[in-house]
Amino acid sequence: MKAGFYSKLAIDGIRKNRRMYLPYLLTCVLMVAMFYILAYLSNAPFMEYMPGSASLQSVMNLGSFVIAAFAVIFLFYTNSFLLRRRKKEFGLFNILGMDKHSISRILFWETLIIAGLSLIGGLGFGIALSKLAELGLTNIIGGDVSYEFTVPGLVVRNTSIIFAILFFLIYLNAVRHVRFSNPVELIRSENVGEKPPKANWFPGILGVLILGAAYYLAVSIENPVDALVWFFVAVILVIVGTYLIFIAGSVLLCRILQKNRRYYYKKNHFISVSSMAYRMKNNGAGLASICILLTMVLVMISSTTCLYFGKEDSLHSRYPRDISARIDFEHIEQAKEDNISLVRDTIDKTVRENNVNMSNVWDYRESQVSGMLRDGNVEVNADDTLSVNYDELVTVHFIPLEDYNRMIGKNTILSEGEALAFSVKISNLPEYRTVGGVKLHVVERLASLPIDATSTAEMIPNLYLVVPDLDKTLASLSELVDSNGNRMLITSWYYGFDTDIEVAGQIDMRNDIREDLGQMNEGDQGGFTSYSCESIAAERDDFYGTYGGLFFLGIMLSIVFLVAAVLIIYYKQISEGYEDQSRFDIMQKVGMTKQDIRKSINSQMLTVFYLPIIFAVIHLGFAFPMIRKLLLLFGLNNLILLLTTTGISIVIIAFFYAVVYRMTSNAYYSIVSGARE
């Protein structure tokens, strides 16, 4: 063979099948560009100066990993459409005398050409758009714009290596398909249909049961931590159930329509239903894939948008005061007014030196212990450390009634053994509660409590109990130690307040307070063992970086998943068009007009068009309670905002889906009608 023979055949094959290869090539370019952009953002020098840079880099790294994993699955999936289209050509080559080794060489050159164009185009677009993505991310999180343009060699190298390996695996898969097929199978691959539909109830019923189990998980879980644990289980169940329902349900739908004589025996319905009947397996799987991708986009864009626009609510939920200090004591006896007054006076002195007026002051003591919430009771046992069930783990906080009354300006009276209760991420509090053997009667469940909100950022549930006397109530727990000899009961004093100064002044004052507390701790003043001081102004950057990064990542991944859905729809229409071309050609010879063809296509669209988006919205509706609980882990409890972002997302995606399906149906029409060969 002359040099370049196989490469010329590969180029000619790509050119003749450009209708199939061009969308595939553009998708490969997009995947490479998206991966490069996210990898660039996680490694670019400007990230060191961005608000919340550590969290932001983690989010971008996660995004690049998701893109890489999705590219492996999706490019293998779309490459199968190309293989099916080319098998007839390869079978003809084989019959004419070309061995399968030579066909593998053609596949090698095709893969090499696609890989080269994808990497060059993807890296080119990625590099060109990386600065635009950087500006977009900077604008979202409110950072400072950097005018430095860089192309990290490490990111270019890693992107090239990862996608080179991916294309090599795709090539091996294509060779496997050709090597294990005989020439007759290759030639007839395009015309291989399915048997007439036989309604198999078992996979359909199994799909309904699996999907029902996923829906039950989504709506029945009350604990946000449980929602996080079971979320991925529910996702897998939804995917499996959706595929089973679409494959089995599509067959059943065809059988029902064919038995309906008034519907089936009409020229605009007859062709479309009979065509679908012979490819329901692939048709159902394609529709299920579209449905899953649309669901992923809806869940992702609605939740990340809600997080981004609700970031201030979440921030203030986590930090209710401008400045908040926490002082930890080793023994409950040390948390007395003498020691607390010494620390309070030190903080107040720092506040006066900064010319700050305090307001909305909280000042209270608290003792906390962790245990296992079982049958409505909290078991506190040092021997449980090796057998912790995180679904049952809970932290209980005890606050003296004296401090509670002072904070809220009331004069509530409690008898010994009584308590007021406030819970975070716990529902259905019983009237009687036992904590480590201490039995308490909950006389009132509080709707709110003006306390430090550290618990809102924790994964585990928290229970606050206001008790009449801290020392007497916790006498049996004060000496309890864990297996390492550490006290299980931790006693702290909280001091928080709002200020009337700007952001920079708040951060400076927080640093001054930290310095003063550090000096007290070194001099053994105040009797405390550890301390912390936080400022909402200092933490705002990290919040904005994390939530802005998630919003940006949600947009990027949504673009990728939408493009994937569009490509599946396009290939579905194109492949079905070539399969139906001969049928429509025969029907045109016996009198079927192009207008009749258009009506038949519209009938097919109306029969199956709405199913993926309808099921996606249903999936989102059942997932909504779980999504809301997951957002509670971020300290976001704005139901109106979540409903608004979800509703807008559904409208936008549904409109986009309708436009895409209409555009791709035109490609189907041009093939089956002979309008464009």
Automatic annotation (TrEMBL):
It is found in: Cell membrane. The chain crosses the membrane at residues 21-42, 62-83, 106-129, 149-172, 201-221, 227-257, 285-310, 550-571, 608-627, 639-660. Its main location: membrane. InterPro entries: ABC-4_Integral_Memb_Prot (IPR052536), ABC3_permease_C (IPR003838), ABC_permease_BceB-typ (IPR027022). It is a multi-pass membrane protein. Keywords: Cell membrane, Membrane, Transmembrane, Transmembrane helix, Transport. Residues 63-183 form the ABC3 transporter permease C-terminal domain. GO terms for cellular component: plasma membrane. GO terms for biological process: transmembrane transport. Belongs to the ABC-4 integral membrane protein family. This is Putative ABC transport system permease protein. The lineage of its organism: Bacteria, Bacillati, Bacillota, Clostridia, Lachnospirales.
